[in-house]
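ARCHIVE CARD
SHELF: 3
SLOT: left
DATA:
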Amino acid sequence: MLLTADRTGERADAALARLCPELTRSAAQKLLEEGRVVCCGKALKKNDRLTEGDCLAVTLPEVQETSIEPENIPLDIVYEDGDVIVINKPKGMVVHPAAGHWSGTLVNALMYHCRDSLSGINGELRPGIVHRIDMDTSGLLIVAKNDFAHQALAEQLKDHSLARTYECIVVGGMKEDSGTIDAPIGRHPTDRKKMAVTEKNSREAITHWQVLERFPGYTHLQCRLETGRTHQIRVHLAFRGHPIVGDMVYGRKKPELGLDSQCLHARELTFCHPRTGQPMTVSCPLPPYFEGALDRLRGKRIG
């Protein structure tokens, strides 16, 4: 895989993670440590600084035989063909295996459903996974069934042509009808399990939002991601003083409207089909937990 640096002075690991959205920062560092990223005939180190126009040759590791067990877990399949599958993930399901969640994940279910038809770019623990949503966020996730589709979709993530639209309920009344939050996100300075709006070791993060419905003390929003940072919508809305209802990490840390986890649903995906180039939009309805919260608010609404 060939990449071209577009910034001068950026660290090699940061540039690699930014230019390859499917790679985490730690995965990018591992590739560099293994000598798999070469520029001008020289293997780069993670803290090497790049110059705009540098050509990076990245050699991805061979796909390892996975040890993840396929599990016959029902999937809500919204769309599927030979290249991609779009899943409506329920709240509470972990996307890929990790410490504390080695079974019952979306990947376990996909491996049963797709058998050998999943891309290997993200390695044995995340076959086919192009982007992620949090365990307690529900909604649409697109999965690549081969490496060709994975690379094409990753490119769309990078150039922001893969549009992800969410709905959520937030605390408080948003005064404007729409707006944009443009604030960089990085690790929280004191709590490494959290993200935060910060200028230090952060990456650009942009969220566009629009009011769908107003209630006393709450607002129903639509949010469109321009970038896709970890916990982006949750962090951005909390930063604006309107945390998502039920968010026990970034919000008021108490159950609200019958919810003890974030009321956030990935409602729609728009992308170009990796094989045909045909524009596609896939959507799914709001889940019962979300509709239930709206019903409670509509019952309380004044006027």
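SLOT: right
DATA:
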Amino acid sequence: MAGVNALGSQFKQLSQLSQLNYISSLFTGGGVQSQGSSFFPTTDIASYGVNLSSSTALAKLQVTAIKQGAENLANAVANLNKPSAYGGVNAVNSASSNSFSPASRIGAVSIDTLQLASAQVNRSVAAQAEERPMLSGLQSFAIEQDGERNLFSVNLTTADNNRSAQQKIANAINSREDLGVTASVSFNEETGLSTLTLTGRETGAENGFTVSDISGSVVSQFGLNTAATAAQDARYTVDGVSQTSDSNTIAVGGGASVTLTEVGTQTYDLYSDSSDTRAALNEMISRFNDLTSVGAYGSQSLADRLNAIYRESATDLAKVGIYSGLDGQLRVNDQLMERSIADGSLQEALGVGQRGGFLDLVSNAMNEADQNPARFTGSTNSAAGNYSALYDASYGSDFRLYAAEMNASNMGLLFDYLM
């Protein structure tokens, strides 16, 4: 098989036209065709139902085109046939500009923010950075949060000043990545003061914490046991209904969310998010049109099958903006499409997740075309029929097994070469 593999490699490097010419030359000769160290037997294989002409190579292209086209459309249909493909809702502040189409606006919501959510902040008393603290030796302290007590310790020496002592405390706290508190030291060059700040990682009343001394007095001396900013929840109303949240990012319905930034009343317009849906729909229509336009190696039989499926749902599809032009190609009316996505009628017209719906019927047809392309080659290309018979279910999915069962090693080499 080494010679065959080498020949196959050379074959793949040729242009499509050169491939056809080369195959044709092999079929019109006899005996053994050679090229370098590779060889290709051309014994009598007509009895196996394969035409000894370049039309066999053309048949291969048609079968390949049917299978590839069917796979492309099946994948596009699968993406559209999921409820998650139809997105959710976006909320946009009415006072700001936006890029959403007016046709996709589905309503509005009024939010009155009474209090923003905040994270707890404990800030030490500002100390002269270069002065020595009135502390030395091992200093132990605890941070308690959500019922869990976390212990820390630092060792202060005579070489430490206030700034270095604060940094040691910050380093000890930040070494615990699982802790819901972070620490930082700031220094004011103008005043020479340094400050240690402890901040909760998350907002909300449940994320508050306490800091206390265990051994020594590092917490009390630096004033770390008092909250400068309390941990609190956001309080607000949505269309008059009171609500609270541990975060300033809140849900307003339909999967939409907004982030509260200030106290007061804000109005948000709600828009259907159609970008992903439109992309998936355009892909399906493009793949559908690829197959119905037939082309050089396309299948009229498969095109007729798809057109028949479309005609069954044409009225419902037209209502949501999908229609057929004079050339038989599917097109989209943008305005109707935006509305149909917003009100959910697109999913109904496509039959998302339903047996016997438009998407389901197209999917079934594509599965047939992929598994048995011979059914769609038509009578106009007998070579395609002969070639695609190798995919018939009666011989299994492996055409090489079929060749072996015919007890023709030369046939095996032929199909290894063609494929």
